[in-house]
Amino acid sequence: MTQEGAPPADEALRSLSEPALVEACLEGRPGAFDLIVERHRRAVYQICYRFVNNHEDASDLSQDVFLRAFRGLKQFKGQSALGTWLYRISVNLCLNRVSVKRPISEPIDEQQFVDTHSETAPDQVLRQERSLLVREAVARLPKKQRTTLVLRVFQDLSHQEIAGMLGISVGAVKANVFHALQNLKKMIGEKA
Amino acid sequence: MMHLSPETLVDLAEGGHDASADVHLEACARCREEVASLRAALAEVVAVHGDVPEPSPLFWDHLSARVRAAVAEDPPAAPWWRASWRPMAAGLAAAAVLVLAVAVLAPAPTGPAVTSSVEMAAVTLPPLDVADDASLDWLADLASDVEWGDALIPGDAAAVAVDDLNDAERVELHRILQEALAQPGV
After folding, report:
1. Is the ipTM of this complex over 0.85?
2. Three-state DSSP class for residue B168
3. What mean pLDDT comes out for the span B165-173?
């Protein structure tokens, strides 16, 4: 699919390895950074969405993530995968953002859920309502608990990886998960 | 009875195994309930794992276009040396003014033999011909885009005081400095 306003990335760029693609970006090769965005935009958007729980903020954050990545591309040393590096930028930006602004949950009727054909209509509505309830509860968690839970459950990071990313101990990660789940139980139980 | 720690409870809720914890769970209903409760809450969260609503198909190209526009508008970063040399140049410029004031205004040495390196620099060096000194060109280049006001280190009373002196006062200051340097033991 041709990106609006940009020529399609040439085949030579598409065949480059990630380190070579980063190098091409640093050399100012046209289309190189566009290709990086194209490859990672969905993952970046999803992690942002999980933190802020609405499309508009997730979209703005995604743009900021890629702009931050563009500025810092010279510092990318290739010690981790580019996706992991973008991921860290996303988490850091989301952490800064959610500390300033409480996440807003979108109303259920504005969301486009994937249709599950096996469900009856009432079951689907119930599932969607429950999903919104859980996501709102996650959004209301204290920042550290929300961050740890999102990274552990939604991004499937290990406790060690989360500890390294947040600069805390593994024990603190597990404690955050524990308290997050306790709070979720309480909030979901109150609303249900 | 000591109960399982939050960390161990989380490990068990996430499907981990711990032989000593298993023994405790057999005897402790409270911890068994806690693990079950945590597992249920975790399952609720996992169930919404896939529920990032899919945006419009047009969104992705629009996002790429916005990023492209933002990147195009992003001003290039200043060279590293400009960020770090600006304050250095300001300090160097201020120091150079003081050194030049002493060196250029210094009369020919007439006093007793000097013993300090400062005295030697002030008395034995010939008057500077600024037009011939390449290092001053370099310094002038560095300081060329530094406002004099910026070159003064805030709170540097000595630099401010020197700046405020008229020519006669500067000559007098030089004389006083020379007398002080000529004191034995200085």
Report:
1. no
2. helix
3. 80
